[in-house]
Design brief:
- The chain has 334 residues and is α/β, with parallel strands linked by helices.
- It has 2 domains: 220 residues, 3-Layer(aba) Sandwich (Rossmann fold), CATH 3.40.50; 58 residues, Alpha-Beta Plaits, CATH 3.30.70.100.
- It is built from 11 helices and 15 strands.
- Strands 6-7-8-3-9-10-15 form a 7-stranded mixed β-sheet, sandwiched between helices.
- α2 packs across α3 and α3 crosses α4.
- The longest helix is centred in the middle third of the chain and has 16 residues.
- The chain is elongated.
- The two termini are 14 Å apart.
- It comes from Micromonospora sonchi.
- This is Multidrug ABC transporter ATP-binding protein.
- Belongs to the ABC transporter superfamily.
């Protein structure tokens, strides 16, 4: 194993009296290369957090092989623990301690210079709140404190589970800038988040897990390209006539009341030329490109809740392949 993180064939089953046997992770694979900001995505209950916990030795896997910075995990994880920063699930702190005292104790326990505490508090935006008690912190501030604790050791690898949880839009943007800055300085980041628009902005690679199995992996742009139907939204002054002309030109056309969705359009010029030559003037011509959210919903079979952005024409995501693995299909290391 040569990646910063490698997981091969991970399997974990839980047993309980109430729920019986439940397979949380089922033959899951993950590869994170040095310098990547790698998004790790999955719906609730998909096995995402279980995978991170197994990787960090917090639960024992049933099967599979794992490696972190070249050390077999979890058995030899102690060899590289000083080079890894991580937060998994909701952070817990002593409420009567200040943020500064919390990090100072962690620094002393980890052999980190105490001067580093002020640095990380500034990095996460708590420089002026470090001497307040944690019990007075908001959820977002506690999340910032957790990220600060993961940064104390100046890690080579940072593993973050929902670091933007509880943050307001400004805080999310600051977290995005922080992740980008860390990556620019050579830190490898494995980032789990439900804010898919942020993942698309921050990450260069992505792995999607559903029902314990990997359903997509690869560079973000190539994962999205696998779901690009070369479609356009068209509004014109005579939709009925426009539909006839576009169908005659060999394109696929679906009517949606006040607009058309036209498929098989490698270049939108094809639409405007076809209609313009017949005196049909186009009022709107918008390429419909997939985003990470629509791809995620399609791959995981998740029903979008009200308010989740959909395609520009308001339709649900199109059906697509159940599995897309760019490592195998395109020969891309992800």
């Amino acid at each position: 194993m040569s990646g910063v993180i490698e997981i091969d064939g991970l399997r974990k089953t839980f047993h309980s009296v109430r729920r019986g046997r439940r397979v949380a992770v089922d033959g899951f694979d993950l590869r994170v290369e040095a310098g990547q900001v790698h998004g790790f995505l999955g719906p609730n209950g998909s096995g995402k957090t279980t995978t991170l916990r197994a990787l960090l030795g917090l639960v024992r896997a049933d099967e599979g092989r794992m490696s972190v910075l070249g050390a077999d995990a979890p058995d030899h994880l102690a060899r590289v623990a000083g080079r890894v920063g991580a937060i998994v699930e909701s952070p817990q702190f002593f409420g009567n301690f200040t943020g500064y005292r919390t990090l100072r104790l962690l620094a002393l326990a980890g052999g980190v210079p105490v001067a580093r505490v002020d640095e990380v508090l500034e990095e996460v935006g708590l420089g002026d709140r470090g001497h307040e008690r944690v019990k007075g912190y908001s959820l977002g501030m506690k999340q910032r404190l957790a990220v600060a604790s993961a940064l104390l050791k100046r890690p080579e690898l940072l593993i973050l589970d929902e670091p933007a949880n509880g943050l307001d839009p400004a805080g999310i943007r600051e977290m995005r800038d922080l992740m980008r800055g860390l990556a620019a300085n050579g830190v490898t980041v494995l980032l789990s988040s439900h804010i898919l628009a942020e993942i698309q902005l921050i990450c260069d690679h992505v792995t999607i897990i559903s029902r314990g199995r990997r359903v997509a992996a690869g560079p973000v742009e190539q994962v999205l390209a696998g779901f690009d139907r070369a479609e356009c939204l068209v509004r014109a002054d005579d939709l009925a006539r426009a539909e006839e002309l576009l169908l005659a030109a060999g394109l696929t056309v679906t009517g949606h009341g006040d607009h058309l969705v036209v498929g098989g359009v490698p270049d939108p010029v094809t639409v405007s030329r076809t209609l313009g030559e017949q005196g049909i003037w186009v009022r709107e011509l918008t390429p419909l490109r997939p985003d990470l959210e629509s791809v995620f919903l399609e791959l995981t079979g998740t029903t979008p809740h009200p308010g989740v952005p959909r395609q520009p024409d308001g339709s649900a995501p199109h059906p697509g392949p159940a599995v897309i693995d760019l490592d195998d299909v395109r020969g891309v290391d992800a």
